[in-house]
Amino acid sequence: MENTTLQRKDLAVWHDMLSPPEKGPVTISAIMCFLACLILPMTDHQALSLLLLAGCVLFYYLLTRSLMAVLYYAVPGFLLFMLGSLFPAIPNPFLLPSAFAALLIGGGCGAFVLIHRHTPKRDWYLLGLPVAAFALVWLITGDPMRGLLSLLPLVMAVTAALCLWLYQRRTESTLTLAIVLAIALAVAALITLAWMGKLNGDLLTHTANELRESIVAMFRGMNTVYAEAGVHLGVSDVDAANVAALFVNVLPGLFICVCSITAFLIWRILLQLLVGFGTLPRLPLRVAAFTMSPLSAILFILAYFASLISNGSTVTLFGMVCENLSLILEPGLALIGFSVLFAKGAARSCLSRLLGFALIVTFWFQPAMALALAAFVGCFQILVAPRLPRPDGTDDPRH
Fold it and tell me: pTM of the full predicted structure?
């Protein structure tokens, strides 16, 4: 079933493999999806967001029995926590991490329920739980626009279930989920702004200016705090303004990057559910293996160095576009690079061990540089490694 072109009989065999497990796992997944949909619109309340985070961590730990698997999701959650501190309009520092967790659990668990309810059987009421969450949020808050946010995990669940039902490759499914998530978030933002009467022609400019001012104000506050402690931070207003401008310039690429990572992790949770709850004894390579094309590796290398050269003395439009493009491609390539250097049971050379240690040290001091180095390792794996001779002296026929 690993052919590029799938016949109808291949899909029929795949659908037969998705045999429904016992009622318990489907019910548990439906409950987690309902809770994620219910709490997502109310994550501005810190107690609810912390409750959701604790529930998601406990659920995933009981599913995988691995603390490292939980930490796999904690890293992007922590980065979102730091990112949320840049936006003064966010009332709760745990809002972005909890919304991230709600999308992951709601999308993954909802897709698991949909996959096992594709034929007329009992428990169809489970599919109406996100709609019930929408009605309940509307009733609690009195805000229908806030209630609509509870349907975001349902959108991701339907998309993930459809990708799995059509037996798409993991890369294609991740791309589809990322596009759907980006469109859903953009539409939700536009509807919210229109409802609040803040949708106007200067929206992007106003938002960018507010973000720059908040970043500069954050650095000023840090200088004040450190000065009271007798430490000179050494970040001037000019340096803070440059950092703010750089952050605003890469915001489009950062948004797509976050959507891509979220999509990748939703698919990963769905696969964990399929194996953990006994739907599949093992995962087919087609839906489990993550790959990127040689074209994406070449584009990343060209865009990365083009942005360094173009933005060397001053920021240019071309350099900004290249920087956003490299940022969009970087997470997938970095993931391949990390998997090459830290794969379990893989034979490692002295060079790979040295590179792995260097990445760990670099990630501690310069996370952005470490991700870029890992992405270049991924580019090497895609472009060069398949064409090198195998240790047994034969050529690798893979491309």
Answer: 0.85
Q: What are the tens digits of pLDDT across the range 51-89?
A: 989 998 999 888 888 887 888 788 788 878 877 766 666
SS (H, E, C) the chain: CCCCCCCHHHHHHHHHHCCCCCHHHHHHHHHHHHHHHHHHHHCCCHHHHHHHHHHHHHHHHHHHCCHHHHHHHHHHHHHHHHHHCCCCCCCCCCHHHHHHHHHHHHHHHHHHHHHCCCCCCCCHHHHHHHHHHHHHHHHHHCCHHHHHHHHHHHHHHHHHHHHHHCCCCHHHHHHHHHHHHHHHHHHHHHHHHHHHCCCCCCHHHHHHHHHHHHHHHHHHHHHHHHHHCCCCCCCCHHHHHHHHHHHHHCHHHHHHHHHHHHHHHHHHHHHHHHHHCCCCCCCCHHHHCCCCCHHHHHHHHHHHHHHHHHCCCCCCHHHHHHHHHHHHHHHHHHHHHHHHHHCCCCCCCHHHHHHHHHHHHHHHHCHHHHHHHHHHHHHHHHHCHHHCECCCCCECCCC
